[in-house]
């Protein structure tokens, strides 16, 4: 159980702020993350690591000389947004390019990739490094599909040491990928975990059983078995990983025995006694083994074993000096530096000049987003119910938070004189940043692509709107990889975009074209929106659905309807 | 829950071995503990810390330059024995005397005090330092009765820094006592804890409630209240400790926010955000605050806040460089040293020469202890049942383990040619070492005092036996502080000793005198021993008891009966 909190909202952000405040020698707090508080040589490659919260010391505890330059944190078990990642990356940029390390999860891949694209567009060279060490999540011939667990620490440690030594971005990336290819983990869980303030666990493990290979967010493992004594558990973990020993390995291994959060250090040390013996009996040479909590999973009980099959280069980087809140070896010593305190303002770009027509368009978009946010707020519970059938039930929550943040950012930008393109781009970033999850990231991408079809100098045209819709769909398909029929947002977005395009092309007004497109989207989503004309709001009705409607597609239909209503307002 | 173990037996010892193996840069494993693996200047005062296991990183995680020289570990939640403490102290002796730091619990006070006496008798100057920081356990005017919790770390850190600086034993003790007087802690617990392999928790906290001031072994707290949000919890903890601010404090405080084991680091950081604000709002200046797990309690969920009201001297020692597995600051860096590897054999004394008569007496004593152990093994369950009425039900277990170990050590010493005094002294140490708990320590003391009335050169006389019995009683009363009628071992031992003395003095044979004394002991214990003449064994029968017999007194009666039977054997 998680007992100490002020509710789920803000838990991750408050924990991060508390961590930063307790570790001034190592880190400085920036929006959504921490960066080193120590002096860093100009031109050094920066290692940015991150992912969802709830995994402490991953990832903020890894920041310091010899390891990461910065960590970005999402909400509990949720990827940080593209904007959050890019913002922390800007604050951690020392001119040598940025390598972004994270565990291989869909939301993280999406957001870190997008952030890298955005940074490249700004002239900051950025690469991504998804860690894929969990052998329980895919067979060896599909190793690139594996999830990332406690192997994160080994891969990041080695990459951080290479960056510290002065390798360039190509060099650091090569070493990091090599370390990732040689790193494997396997674990078991004895209990589920509970979100701060949640009335029930996210998932459970039956009494007396253990989930073998269970993921750190409860992802399916290999099997469920009766709990075995520590000696047998050690053998099981070592055997599984020993089978992954690559050709040419001479048996040198970096080792991490990791606790998931609720398993005691004494338990880990009892297990370690057997793990060490099992490894030595198989001829392995243990190099700087670490036993402790390195990648946790809220209050899950369980553990994992990680091996990195070392060669000379990897061993040197694994042994290299490091000083972070969670890992320290050698003479390196973090010392907070006043010079390292860049202005936090550097994480945000400025607002460019705009024409009067475009500013009017921007103000109009801001008003439209207010109405859209109000409609989604009203539909929050029903969207949550739809989502709970196949998902985790937080779709309505995410859509409301995203739309509210987008509306607020749009109003703010409009007040500061931004044109239509900038207003929508700011709204897009804020949406992705606050909504969280994959759907938040996709909405952010879609709106940002749409904004690029607009401009800060010309008025909004119906052609530009239709082009923007097409660009938004293309962005969602490119990033999310979904095809029509996959039961996603794309199912409603595809007919919406084609209908809008056709209607605009045959000369319909924007209002008529939008209405027609909205109808097409709702029909495809398998749900109608029941309009309340007075308020211009709607609630989704799954009346025409065959099977269950996808909540993402339903939200799109609702959002489109909100825009229709806005356009028809006197 | 504790999921990773190979059963309760050996859990603490295996965890200690695993810890030592994972931290070769800091520690070296010795029987029952760890000592620094780093070079230590000759003549330096040694700081030995310790207590029961289950509190990791207390106490082994505190060993390293700038903090402790050694840690001794008992079984889970059980004091280490006098012998264990003395043994680790010998291995940690650098010639400057030894300060022994531990939390203020009866078993620890008893065993560390006895160990200090024993070391002094060997010419090693030793002092004890019970830490008394838990404000929930006694009011300010009885501060010396308070229990020790996470304040341990602050007091030990300051004492360790003073020792590192080169202060002599008087100086280190003065600084440590001063730190202890200025250190206060207060905590809450949200759940109980479970022994490794135990079918049920040791105690529980009702769902949705928190034990305010609950001790780290489940000792009673101040109240039980509904769980409050982190913000309110922070205020409650800070208010309670702020009220303890001593006159003359300028508001500088060392701070520890400690997690009990199952509370996540993220929870602690959320709480820290509020604790820090509350402290600053009250005008405190925070010096090197630490947030994390420092004194845990198996898998208990909960936390405690510790403040040490600093002056210039305490602040300097608190800020001083340190490098241990759990705490590191400044440029200090532990580096294992081959020179520091004393022989582990140095923890044991040699066997001195003995006369033939005394060796025969020693062999006889070893045989006697075998029978005594067999009888206690048979009575284990029933003694456990007697103990479960008012205690934790482990009296029978402890007596069996103690007696078995004593018999084994006696046989071993007798085989190696030891005289009667040495055989009994070795048996005494082994008993205390393996039995655990307060009664184990008292039996160890009693037999050791008895052994001092015997000799390695003369035959055993009935006068020597009677003198030994009186010395044993005096040792038990001195160490345990119990009076007749307190429902302890003393209730049976007092009439035993006086009856034995009187019978011997009036000329009875040892056998007759012993029989008479045994009868007096059993009558006083409120229990008779039902003899099975063939085996010479007995089972306790509480037939004549008014109220419930004390298990300690019953065991004494049983042991006396076993000796009677041994003496009457053909």
Would you write up a description of this structure?
With 570 residues, the first copy, chain A, is of the alpha/beta class. The first copy, chain A, has helices at 11-22, 82-91, 106-121, 151-165, 169-181, 230-242, 265-281, 312-319, 356-390, 395-415, 420-435, 437-453, 462-480, 489-505, 510-525, 551-568, and strands at residues 27-30, 33-36, 46-53, 70-76, 98-103, 126-131, 183-189, 209-212, 223-226, 252-259, 285-292, 302-309, 322-323, 328-329, 528-532, 537-541. In chain A, β5 (98-103), α3 and β6 (126-131) form a beta-alpha-beta unit. In chain A, α2 (82-91) packs across α3 (106-121) and α14 (489-505) runs parallel beside α16 (551-568). Chains A and B meet through α1, α6, α7, β11 and β14 of A and α1, α6, α7, β11 and β14 of B.
Key features of this structure:
homodimer; 570 residues; alpha/beta; 6-stranded mixed sheet; 16 helices; 16 strands
Q: Brief description of this entry?
A:
Chain A is α/β, with parallel strands linked by helices and 570 residues long. Helices cover 46% and strands 15% of the residues of chain A. In chain A, strand 1 and strand 2 (33-36) form a beta hairpin.
Draw up the topology in text.
The structure is a homodimer of 570-residue chains.
Chain A: H1 11-22, E1 27-30, E2 33-36, E3 46-53, E4 70-76, H2 82-91, E5 98-103, H3 106-121, E6 126-131, H4 151-165, H5 169-181, E7 183-189, E8 209-212, E9 223-226, H6 230-242, E10 252-259, H7 265-281, E11 285-292, E12 302-309, H8 312-319, E13 322-323, E14 328-329, H9 356-390, H10 395-415, H11 420-435, H12 437-453, H13 462-480, H14 489-505, H15 510-525, E15 528-532, E16 537-541, H16 551-568
Parallel strand pairs in A: 3-4, 3-5, 5-6, 10-11
Antiparallel strand pairs in A: 1-2, 2-4, 7-8, 7-12, 8-9, 10-12, 13-14, 15-16
Helix pairs in contact in A: 2-3, 3-12, 4-5, 4-8, 6-7, 9-10, 9-11, 9-16, 10-11, 11-12, 12-13, 13-14, 14-15, 14-16, 15-16
């Amino acid at each position: 159980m998680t007992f100490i909190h002020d509710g789920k909202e803000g838990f991750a952000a408050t924990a991060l702020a508390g961590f930063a405040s307790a570790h001034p020698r190592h880190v400085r707090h920036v929006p959504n993350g921490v960066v080193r508080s120590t002096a860093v040589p100009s031109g050094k490659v920066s290692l940015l690591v991150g992912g969802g919260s709830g995994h402490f010391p991953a990832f903020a505890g890894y920041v310091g000389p010899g390891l990461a330059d910065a960590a970005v944190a999402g909400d509990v078990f949720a990827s940080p947004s593209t904007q959050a990642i890019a913002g922390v990356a800007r604050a951690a940029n020392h001119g040598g390019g940025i390598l972004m390390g994270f565990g291989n999860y869909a939301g993280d891949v999406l957001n870190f990739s997008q952030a890298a694209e955005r940074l490249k567009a700004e002239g900051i060279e950025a690469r991504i490094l998804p860690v894929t060490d969990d052998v329980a999540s895919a067979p060896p011939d599909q190793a690139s599909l594996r999830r990332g667990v406690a192997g994160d620490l080994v891969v990041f440690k080695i990459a951080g040491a290479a960056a510290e030594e002065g390798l360039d971005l190509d060099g650091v990336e090569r070493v990091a990928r090599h370390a990732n290819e040689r790193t494997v983990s396997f674990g078991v869980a004895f209990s589920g975990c509970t979100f701060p303030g949640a009335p029930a666990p996210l998932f459970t493990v039956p009494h007396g059983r253990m989930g073998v290979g269970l993921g750190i967010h409860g992802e399916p493992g290999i099997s469920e078995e009766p709990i075995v004594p520590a000696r047998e558990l050690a053998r099981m973990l070592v055997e599984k990983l020993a089978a992954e020993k690559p050709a040419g390995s001479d048996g040198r291994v970096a080792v991490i025995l990791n606790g998931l959060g609720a398993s005691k250090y004494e338990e880990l040390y009892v297990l370690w006694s057997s793990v060490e013996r099992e490894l030595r009996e198989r001829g392995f040479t243990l190099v700087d083994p670490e036993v402790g909590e390195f990648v946790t999973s809220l209050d899950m009980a369980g553990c994992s074993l990680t091996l990195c099959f070392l060669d000379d280069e990897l061993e040197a980087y694994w042994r290299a000096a490091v000083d972070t809140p969670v890992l320290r070896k050698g003479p390196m010593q973090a010392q907070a530096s006043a010079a390292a305190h860049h202005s936090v303002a550097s994480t945000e770009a400025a607002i460019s000049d705009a024409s009067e027509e475009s500013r009017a368009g921007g103000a109009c978009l801001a008003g439209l987003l207010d109405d859209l946010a109000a409609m989604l707020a009203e539909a929050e519970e029903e969207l949550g119910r739809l989502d709970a059938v196949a998902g985790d039930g937080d779709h309505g929550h995410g859509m409301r938070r995203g739309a509210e943040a987008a509306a607020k950012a749009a109003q703010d930008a409009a007040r500061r004189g931004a044109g239509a393109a900038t207003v929508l781009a700011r709204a897009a970033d804020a949406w992705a940043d606050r909504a969280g999850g994959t759907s938040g990231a996709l909405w952010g991408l879609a709106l940002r692509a749409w904004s690029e079809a607009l401009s800060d100098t010309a008025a909004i045209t119906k052609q530009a709107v239709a082009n923007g819709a097409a660009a938004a769909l293309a962005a969602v398909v490119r990033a999310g990889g979904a095809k029509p029929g996959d039961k996603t947002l794309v199912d409603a977005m595809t007919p919406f975009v084609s209908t809008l395009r056709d209607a605009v092309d045959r000369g319909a007004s924007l209002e008529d074209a939008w209405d027609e497109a909205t109808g097409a989207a709702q029909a495809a989503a398998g749900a109608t929106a029941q309009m309340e004309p007075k308020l211009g709001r709607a609630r989704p009705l799954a009346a025409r659905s065959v099977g269950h409607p996808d909540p993402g597609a339903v939200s799109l239909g609702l959002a489109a309807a909100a825009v229709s209503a806005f356009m028809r307002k006197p």
